[in-house]
Amino acid sequence: MADQRIEPILAKSAASGASAIPAPIVVVAVPKLGRPKGLGHLLEREHILAGVLLAPTLVILTLFIAYPFVLGIWLAVSDKVVGRPGNFVGLHNFWVNLNDSIFLRAFQNTFVYTFIATILKLMLGMAAALLLNQHFRFKRIVRASMLLPWIVPTVLSTLAWQWMFDATFSVFNWMLMNAGIISRRILWLGDGTMAMGCLILVNVWRGMPFFAITLLAGLQTVNPDLHEAAEIDGANAWQRFWRVTLPLIKPIMLVVVLFSMIATFADFQLIYVLTRGGPYSSTHVFGTYAYEIAMRAAKLGQGASISLFLFPFLLMVIVFQLWYIRRGD
Amino acid sequence: MAESESVTSIDRRAFLKAAGVATGAAVAGGIPGIVAAQKAPSFPKGTRLSILEWVSFVPASDVEFKRLAAEFGKLAGVEVTADLINMNDLNPRIASAIETKAGPDIIMMINNWPHLYADGLADVDDVAEEIAKRDGGFYDISRRINMVDGRWKAAPFTMGSGVWNYREDWFKEVGANKFPDTWDELRKVGTALKKKNLPVGQAFGHSLGDPNSWAYAVTWCFGATEIDDKGKVVINSKETIEALKFTVAFWKDCLDDGGLAWDDSNNNRAFLAGTISATINGASIYFVAKRQFPEIAKAMNHAHMPKGPAGRFYYQGGQAHGVMKYSKNQQVAKEFLRWFMDRPQYDKYIAANDGYVGGPTPYWEKHPLWEKDPKLVTFRDAPKFGRWTGYPGQPSRKASEALVKYILVDMYAQAIKGMKPEDAAKWAEAELKKAYA
Amino acid sequence: MAVQYGSRLKRAVTFYIPLTCLLVGTLFPFYWMVITSIRPDVELYNVKMNPFFTLHPTFKHFLDLFELTMFPRWAWNTLFIATVSTGISLFCGLLAGYALARLQFRWAPSVGTVIFITYLVPPTLLFIPLGDVVKTFGIGDTPWAVILTYPTFLIPFCTWLLMGYFKTIPREIEDCARIDGASRFQAMVRISFPLAIPGILSAGIFAFTLSWNEFLYALVFLSSPQQKTIPIGVFTELVRGDVFYWGPLMAGALLGSIPVALVYSMFVEHYVTALTGAVKG
After folding, report:
1. Is the CATH code 1.10.10.10 the one for domain C68-280?
2. Interface of C with A in 80-119 (CB under 8 A)
3. In CATH, what class is A92-327?
4. N or C: which end of chain B has fewer CB within 10 A?
5. pLDDT for C57-82, tens place per residue?
């Protein structure tokens, strides 16, 4: 098939380039028809095939991320402000962060936000995947609607949540009051802890469908025969899940968890729309605080040092995690 | 409706006629610009001018802006594009434009942004001085926030202030026939209103507008300031503690307890829903009310910030236009600003705004549009009492840092949450020292 | 009878009740958005009214959306951008994922790690230096500015997810094909890729959704109103200072998500059946 495709292309290029390309080249090109076999032969060698397959990824990442990445790290160790060239200041920015009470609060919040939200997303996502993996009526429409929270543009769905948490208009308060459960309205975003809880709730609501759908895809690869065999051996549903299903989908699960954690760690939009770090700087995370400092105070260097503060640490964790995932192979 | 329109347009014509001498002089002598003289275009063919602005809450104002921009395009033979976006999303666009040296030729500057972005802005001394000469000078605050080291970095465009929006009908019910003139009186009235379950609304969340309108203005009214005129942090003062005590008491007696979670938009909604009786806001509540809730528009009015022991103050906002240093079309950009700010054009623009924003100079206070709706007059007079972040020092990057860290807002919010006023002031002092370091 | 009742009860407790809870939880905010988009403004601001339904549904907000903004144009932009950048990311991720999962070469672990690390860079600030790159390539304010930058955060995930899928596919299937005379390349394209379809689809769904929703890069790199995407256009033009155009905002959110959900549901069904077939076959 590959041979067939190359032939007309060569013929065409020879025809269209007739005026420019002298005939001998066409002659030379003819023996080249045998080349695909050679190429195919080369592709049999795994490291060469690997090089070919990785090339597009490496090209895009090098072109678009290598420079910004290095520049981002440079920003973090410079006193760059918008419009002025920066000077190298070493770890000064990081030192400033460590003495900044708002930063320290953001530090703590980032961890709380990331871990609680990721764990909840994983648990609920797994539950949803197991449920959706069964046969029932209207399965299709249920699966589609389950994905909705994740598809609605985050800025817009978060606006909807903002209105639902609104001190005056909250539908939750309306429901709870009409059900007689509360007599005074709850100020969902009026207190640091409560607001953090709301942010986590919205993050879980938004992120859970992706866990569900990816894990569902993973569940599909589990051979039903294995389950039957385990059932015959007397394993109950929980044991079957724990011993058969989970180990099989673990590679996928770990990847999803890892990526989701990193994305949650760097989250910005949701918090920015819902609380902007308020009330009294109690809900800032790295993403929002870095944005305020870099964009609104125009201190790019300081802002970069906030968002890259944990980069070395994350790097270590990730390298270790990846090593752990691979060890399983 | 139609009748009143025509009456105003006659008024406007008269106004322009009265102003005609100055305008005519400017056209004949002052502006060498091709546009003002309505001559043929002299810019190279294919010249483009792109402008980045906020979207105004008055849609008609955006329509008029775009229309005038297109008109300029025709006169000058350039292609003008205007991108209008939510003001909160301007910062990343500006930072990226300055850093990559590519983007719009003219960008709107809000509040003290000219200080923040001074290194990326071209001088517009000629444009600003021309407006000043024609109108007889700017507001002090405009000069402060748009001039950096003696050079104009942005040309003042409009003034917008947050004033008290209140329900006249409910104020009367508790015996206040006019809006109280001092904070103490306001507290008395507010207490009575909250007892009737009609509290006053004030945001203390993280949002650039309303929460700062309270935090800065009240601090100043009580005679406290973040820094002194030399830049030394002086927030931890007797006056600040008084302001804090007052705010905490006001919170308990008068305010809606949802305020800690509020941003700029919550009080708009609550006021229109009739759950609060007064709040600090721009003209946007009244604007929406007039269109959609006529009874509320009828029952409400605007009033000045009350006086404190040190007087009356506003945390003043203002818009200006910066010409970007990287722009290859600086000449066209300046020509556009000159043309736009000249009276015949600017008059149309300000008229489309219907009194929801003020002009860049006291001159425009005399414009007949202010007579059209007496309820908007407060906005006309507010800029006189306006101050900038970092007052009485100079506006600066550092003041912006204090602003985006919401130090003053959080100082009040923490006191409201139960922190002792003395500790809140101490906390703010420590944070401000870092910001102003 | 009792047995039947018991099993039904069991089914209800272990299946229907949890499923219903999950659905209510996910769809409640969505329902609220629907209601907001069809309620007249006067009701929207009325705290005394039941917020769950309206007696005066109106399509005015939808009309406003089309009148006030260039929504159809934005929808088209978003579709184009999301499709192309998803295509690029899937292509790269599929090949790279296969190489890293299946092929023996010395640098495999390091390359995999490096690809992952690019995902660690927080996008909040990356847009500043990335803007330089966009400018250098001369693609500012064109769809390509985001089409080519989105893959930077999409490829790492696609690669790793597909790596995971390729690992779950037994190597023996490929080996059998090779014994039958297929080349290395053919075995990959004809045997492994089709088996990875569920993975490809979920990576595709991931990539598409992220490019569909992305905010910061689109905000900074696309400036002309006719180049905007749905989230940028709707958010930056319908939030006017402290005045939110709630109805049109929510109408935009709905119109920008329901069609996508329907398409996804087809994909999800497809990969479920594709895989069941493959395992049985």
Report:
1. no
2. 88, 91-93, 95-96, 98-100, 103-106, 108-109, 111-113, 115-119
3. mainly alpha
4. N
5. 888 999 989 988 899 999 999 999 99
